Amino acid sequence: MTRTAHCCCGSLRAEATGEPVFVGACHCLECQRRTGSPFGVSTYFAKEQVRTEGRSKVYVRGSDAGRKIEIHFCPDCGSSVFWYGEFAPDLIGVAFGAFADPSMPWPTLSVWEATRHPWVILDHRLDRFAVQPEIDDLYLERPLGSPDDQVRAAKPRETANA
Known about the structure:
Number of domains: 1
Radius of gyration: 15 Å
Helix content: under 10%
Largest sheet: 8 strands, mixed
Strand content: 35-45%
Number of helices: 2
Structural class: mainly beta
CATH superfamily: glutathione-dependent formaldehyde- activating enzyme (gfa)
Order of helices and strands: EEEHEEEEEEHEEEE
CATH topology: glutathione-dependent formaldehyde- activating enzyme (gfa)
Strand order of the largest sheet: 6-7-8-9-4-3-10-11
Number of strands: 13
Distance between the termini: 38 Å
């Protein structure tokens, strides 16, 4: 399956093939500022699954976890479409809403719940983290197509001493 995300004016695009590695809702203060919303929803794909086209401006910022994120946004309409984060160097994040596709998989994890607005309720099954977990500490499974079939996208790795 191929899906295309684009900015409001359509000049900056990200075409993704296959299913995302994970979809996450982020309640950090920086995502709240980036989206102008109480949280951001990010769709993460392996870099080789995504082809980008169009001019972009780049804004590099720190995250609430202290890592850098390189956000690519349209220089004409200002929409952020995709980004690269230090926390996941093999992945590319694409703005969930830029796909404008109701068939997209639901978020399978929610991070920075410590700064989640109390009236924001995600009532389907997903993993919740007070802050952003280390990606190396997660076992990521690909989400399935429907919310009823969702597999937990991130779960702690089992260890021999557990």
